Fold:
Amino acid sequence: MKDFKDKIVFITGGASGAGLGQAQVFTEAGAKVIIADMNRQRLNEAIKSGAADYAIKLDVTDRKAYAAAADEIEKVYGEAPDVIILTAGVNVFGPAEASTYDDYDWVVGVCFGGVVNGLVTFVPRMIKKGKGGHIASTVSWGAFGAGSSTAPYSAAKAAVLNLLESYYNALKPYGIGVSALTPANINSHIYEAALNRPQELSNTGYNVSDKTQTFLASIHKNGLDPKVLANWLKKGIEDEIFLVIPYASGPRMVEIEMERFRYLAYPGGEADLAALKATPERQAESLQMMAEREGYDVSQRPMAPPPPPADGDAPPPVFSFDTGGFGQAKADVEWVADDKKYKG
Structure:
């Protein structure tokens, strides 16, 4: 797809962060953009700003509401979307062994289930429309690696990546393209989600508080600008690329990230991989790529404030130094190792 003028574009999570950036970029490209989000206030603000043409309040885990949203779009615009971008997501951090059923049901329900619901709702309508189109999802860099403190999120994102590749192959006969967008750190409000998760899914083994999320927000503020990220996606759709990695070193990043499986497949492989990672060349390359993904020099990431320079004019830190026990388990999760629990 090269021309977005008058195309109908539907974006979940479209009222802030990556989704809002996508709405702005595709609106500027001449598309009729519909955004869906849980936050009515932000939906209204996005419409008022001109970032989108139409807004729908939607919980992506609610299949009936998804179908109603699709019906509403067809009623308002006369047909199904030409492009759907499934960006809604949530995340929370803590030791994998502290995870509860609610942690999985919430994170996987939104990040994976929300994508499944989008595909099952819209793909048949797009095929019946008979005009081709494109499907994309903001998958996350987390899809490429297991995270000992992001187990539900990493698992969900890996599943979405696999699912999208299945649809990428399946939908070619219908002229419908599929792209997986894989950013790491984004300047977004996703950190707010953990403080506003549904009450019925609030039982967590993770230590989460205003302090932990303030710390996370200080990291996200250094992340990729949402409109820059959206332009990477737009170019990927134009070029019919499946895997859209929004970094200059993207292909090499994936090569490095995925090579671990070869080393995990034979006895002694982990030691060989550790030796490879310890070489000066690989360490330098890895630090450079991590800085590219995170938006700041990760080698300068102490857990305490640096001393001020001699003239007393210390530059503002790139992130907060008060973690509040970020990424740790609750103190009362008795089976988790003591050094993984927050005791503040």
Remarks:
- The first strand starts at residue 8 and ends at 12.
- The chain has a mean pLDDT of 93.
- The two ends are 53 Å apart (CA to CA).
